[in-house]
Amino acid sequence: MRIITRVKEMQAEISALKAQGRSIGFVPTMGFLHEGHITLLTRAKKENEILVLSIFVNPLQFGPGEDLDAYPRDFDRDRAAAENAGVDYIFYPSAEEMYPKPPSVKVTVQERTDVLCGASRSGHFDGVATVLTKLFHIIMPDRVYFGLKDAQQAAVVDGLIKDFHFPVEMVPVPTVREEDGLAKSSRNVYLDQGERRQAAHLYKSLQEAREAIEKGERNPETLIEMVRAHLNNHCEAAVDYVSIYSYPDLKPLRTLTGNVIIALAVKFSKARLIDNLILEVE
To answer: Binding positions for ATP (predicted)?
Structure first.
């Protein structure tokens, strides 16, 4: 496994691999890897000849009040995990390497960002789209892997790839969960014992909605109230939102039909957790 910190060196290495006809799988991350990331890496390793992992805490994704310096980092731990997962290259640039001067061109996401987490994080997905545009040009992957736990991000990336005609296939990977259903996340370490038990109800509330849909419920407001009530009854935390939209377009629905997402966010004392359920409704 090689660790590369310079853009030009990474591009030169990728160009050589492309000349050999090697297929490249890419997993972009901000590091502090957990089992969800490992699932992405394992899938990418099976489906490609070369596996590239990027670790870059992207400052453009952090808005006012979001502490960039407080974001968890542990490169030695990440390096060991990457090696165990069969990663061939870690691209580990500095902020100065990725953004050597103020940009002359800005990537702005026009759709799929004014709902869910994007509604309260102005500019966040512009930062995501900007760094991915850079990374796609540097890594030139055949396939890129994203977990569906952050389904809005996956939807934005889907739009970015299609709108800019990037020659890359996005592979969405189902959410990895604990035994009690809680979605794996680096933020879970901030939960105390009581909050950790309560957090299992995020997925349970979504399962309750799924069961209602299977029995014929198609009214989004009824399902939203059902999920919200479950969370309020079982969690001593603030429900940020419960929403239902078409997916991946993230448009409002009067009645459930086609591909839909039920998404939620809950604020515990030191952690804001998100979860979702994506399903096809006849």
So the answer is: 30-37, 147-150, 176, 184-187
